[in-house]
Input
Amino acid sequence: MARILLTGGAGFIGSHTAVALQGRGHDVVLLDNFSNASRSVPARLKEITGVDYPVHDVDIRDMDAMQRIFAAEPYDAVIHFAALKAVGESEENPLHYFDVNVAGTLKLLTAMRHAGVGRIVFSSSATVYGAPEHCPIAESAPLHATNIYGRTKLIMEDMISDLVRTGMLSSAFLLRYFNPVGAHPSGLIGEDPRGVPANLMPYLCQVAARQRDHLTIFGDDYPTPDGTGVRDYLHVMDLAEAHCAAVEKALGTEGTHAVNLGTGTGYSVLELVHAFENATGINIPYQIGPRRPGDAPTCYANPALARTMFGWSAKRTLLDMCRDSWHWQSMSAKIRQQA
Output
């Protein structure tokens, strides 16, 4: 059993990873400032697992607080989720993204160094590849982030890699996610965006719940079978299990390892819409809009390294992703009504 600190642990991916880690016998501590997560998440986690997770309500940029947390008890590793994550917002407010993502990570790494915590699993992103020339994308593909969000992830990767190279960290796994969707099958935790969703699945769910009139599909003239963009959608519980496998590997491994996390299969936007309709029985009205600048026609992973390095591969289907997303949407509406 390892003691693991999860920064951003109350967020979408962090909360699901907390459940998965607890299921594998690890001791998990959450750190989150709840700027993009509900304060009800720890209680929901307890409802799922029966565990009362320790929670530090802290911003990772607060160096004094970070040092107190690391001084209070030993940690075997950190899984670092805490970050801003909206591509469009990053282009509108780049300084804020550099402050939270890059400067925040620097504060975390400094606190880890002072405390002698040398192992980290980092929540990176396939956005570090930019618009890929070839698919499936391997870890050796060129790194050409085309937006501020992706640039911050790439800078954070470089910072961590340099600290491993210079001996200030022992081990780092840089997990490059493709498109996480879905929710815990209990329906108690899931993706809970503030305001207008930036991602496709929560927007689909809100249209299905009649909170929005229709879905806008950005472009139907891409060089793909149906003209809409193709992406690698990954169930968040598969992603959470990948973090468990990665942190367990990190505990006994040295060096830096960049690893793609995806299914290896691309689905178009229209294929996802139709899968959602089949899974839920709900018709999704949609309109075609113009392409968004910077969107790649096709982007999906070569996930072979994850299988080789720590024995992980995605198991859940696109229908599972749609069913669990809709169950979460339905459950969260009931929870809000009861609050």
Summary: The domain at 3-182+234-264+300-315 is CATH 3.40.50.720 (Rossmann fold).
